[in-house]
Write a structure and sequence with these properties.
single chain, 378 residues, 12 helices, 6-stranded mixed beta barrel, 17% strand, alpha+beta
Length: 378
């Protein structure tokens, strides 16, 4: 069988034009698929930035909340009840809202404001400059240095500004794991300051962050919160809920799925047609092999081997190009949301194997119908 496969490789490399066309077609398809899916996974990850950055084990929220950006305020008594639930180690409030920042030059910039529990500062970001206790100073805010930091004119410690007609001062510069998806700078302050300075409805508490005493206590906490008419989710469950919202309740998931399918069809059509032309051009050679006693299984193995060689070369080049473009985009575009994970690598590999299988099937059907007598007579 190894000799047959070597012969198959020689036949494949013998027609350089069709070989290069096959590799380029699959490379282009993989490149598009990787680019679309990396954008999708990047957007999904950035949409859950607040969940990941805060780092709470469980979140309590209104049942209609789908994402951390769209909260429905809860009354204060819910916090007191949650703290009394058996199995809860501690629970703190969290405010997530929007503020309008007026800069020194008179321009305005919308910003996301996160209010941390005054007593514990649970969920506070890592500070690059300043001290954690500085947040208790009058009008103090921490600003996150991410891709949107420059939209606030890259403030330093001591920079003053107005937010919703209240004075603010930068008391610290912070770093978070994942930047915001929506292009807004992020400011951290205390819960009391956020709820006093920013316009709000009658209720102001966006979420309750709680720490269960043990994983075994989580089901009981969920049932107790459900009796109050609210929803308790672990961080992974809230992340999944957020992801499902963007995948199925917005146009983003559908549009990226369509683009991925289009790239798959492009690769399949190019590879299938070119591989079929390659088989036709080498029909006499395959017929000769059949005439001298090559078994059907050996001919099938040759075609599959040729198809796999081309597919894996195209897959490698496509992943390389997509990775290079994503890396270049992250260097040049600060808030470029794209990430290559094992999931989109696996998806692209599966699609390439499908393209390889279909292309091989098209060639196999033609070869198995060859009549060696007709080949030699011609």
């Amino acid at each position: 069988m190894s000799g047959v496969l070597k012969l198959a490789l020689k036949l494949l490399l013998g027609d350089r034009g069709k070989f290069v066309t096959l590799v380029i077609g699959i490379t282009f398809a993989v490149f598009l698929m990787m680019l679309m899916t990396s954008m999708f996974f990047g957007i999904i990850e950035h949409s859950a930035a607040n969940i990941i950055n805060v780092g709470a084990k469980m979140w309590v929220m209104d049942p209609d909340v789908q994402t951390p950006q769209n909260s429905i305020p809860m009354p204060d008594y819910v916090l007191d009840v949650v703290r009394s639930i058996p199995g809860v180690d501690y629970a703190v409030p969290l405010y997530v809202g929007a503020g309008l920042v007026r800069l020194d030059d008179g321009t305005y910039q919308a910003a996301t404001v996160i209010g941390l529990d005054d007593a514990t500062l649970f969920g506070r970001p890592e500070l690059l400059a300043g001290k954690a206790l500085d947040i208790y100073r009058n009008n103090a805010f921490f600003v996150v240095r991410d891709a949107n930091y420059a939209k606030l004119r890259s403030p330093k410690i001591g920079t003053t500004f107005e937010i919703n007609d209240h004075r603010g001062i930068i008391a610290g510069i912070a770093h978070v794991s994942i930047g915001s998806l929506f292009g807004l700078p992020t400011l951290y302050t205390t819960y009391s300051r956020a709820t006093q300075d920013l316009p709000s409805t009658r209720y102001v508490m966006s979420f309750i962050l709680l720490q269960p005493k043990s994983p075994a206590a989580i089901p009981g906490i969920k049932r107790a919160v459900a009796k109050l008419g609210y929803l308790a989710l672990t961080d992974s469950e809230f992340t999944t809920r957020n992801n499902r919202f963007y995948e199925f309740q917005t146009a983003m998931g559908t549009n990226i799925l369509i683009m991925t399918l289009i790239s798959f069809i492009v690769g399949l059509s190019i590879a299938g047609e070119t591989f079929y032309m390659f088989v036709l051009d080498n029909l006499e050679r395959f017929g000769a092999l059949k005439a001298i006693g090559a078994r059907r299984s050996e001919l099938v193995a040759m075609i599959f081997y040729q198809s796999l060689v081309v597919s894996f070369l195209g897959f490698g080049f496509g992943v390389l190009l997509a990775s290079a473009l994503v890396a270049f985009g992250k260097l040049r575009i600060p808030n470029y949301a794209a990430i290559i994970t094992y999931q989109n690598l696996f998806m692209a590999l599966v699609m390439v194997l499908v393209i390889s299988g279909v292309s091989a099937y098209i060639g196999i059907r033609r070869i198995l119908r060859i009549d060696p007598f007709v080949v030699f007579r011609s």
